[in-house]
Design a protein that fits this description.
Radius of gyration: 17 Å
Helix content: 25-40%
Strand order of the largest sheet: 2-1-3-4-5
Number of helices: 5
Structural class: alpha/beta
Strand content: 15-25%
Shape: globular
Order of helices and strands: HEEHHEHEEHEEE
Length: 200
């Protein structure tokens, strides 16, 4: 058995891997409904399908390249979908799972949507706006301060991002199915990287 946080983070990682196969930075996000009766760290995966457990509301992966939309981060897409589905911009009693620390744009959207708890995998030292470069949730001027749990499946989330950017640095690209192509010489040669495979 495993904690609910691990269960949902694994789902978010699978979404991130799907995004990677489309050439997107591999970040996935899932918003679930949370019941105060259960707490946040003791629900087991075996019980997720019971009607007393968190219910998935929306999910997404980064889609900036696909949509040609600079705001199409996984968190933003999830918040938009959830607000429409619930017919309410206040996403109260929810938990947002994200494979990486949100940027300033996404942290701002989380504050605006009143999400009470976010759970993320790995830190984003350069652009992270929760614990790293900025700490927007702790700004005393804000009217909403989400709770944060970090480091859930941290290594898996971090390895996924590192594998993706290492491929790009070598002049490669990610193609459908999660395989890698090295195009630095003009002749693309196939390869594979399990870290980026949507099947894992």
């Amino acid at each position: 058995m495993e904690s609910a946080h691990n269960y949902w983070m694994k789902k978010a990682i699978k979404l991130a891997k799907i995004g990677a196969t489309k050439g997107e930075v591999p970040i996935g996000a899932i918003l679930v409904r949370h019941s105060e009766d259960l707490g946040t760290d003791i629900i087991v995966a075996d019980a997720v399908h019971n009607d007393v457990c968190p219910q998935k509301i929306a999910e997404a992966y980064n889609s900036k390249e696909t949509l040609n939309d600079p705001t199409a981060h996984a968190e933003i897409l999830v918040i938009r979908e959830a607000a429409k589905k619930l017919n309410n911009w206040r996403l109260l009693d929810t938990i947002l799972y994200i494979t990486a620390e949100p940027c300033a744009m996404c942290a701002g959207a989380i504050i605006q949507s009143r999400i009470p708890l976010i759970v993320y995998g790995c830190r984003e030292e350069r652009f992270g706006a929760v614990d790293s470069s900025y700490q927007l949730f702790n700004d005393p001027r804000s009217n909403h301060h989400p709770e944060v749990i970090s480091g859930i499946l941290e290594k898996e989330c971090k390895d996924l991002l590192q594998a993706f950017f290492e491929t790009l640095r070598r002049g490669g690209r990610v193609v459908e199915g999660g395989s890698l192509e090295n195009c630095s010489t003009g002749n693309c040669t196939g390869g594979s990287n399990p870290s980026l495979s949507a099947k894992t």
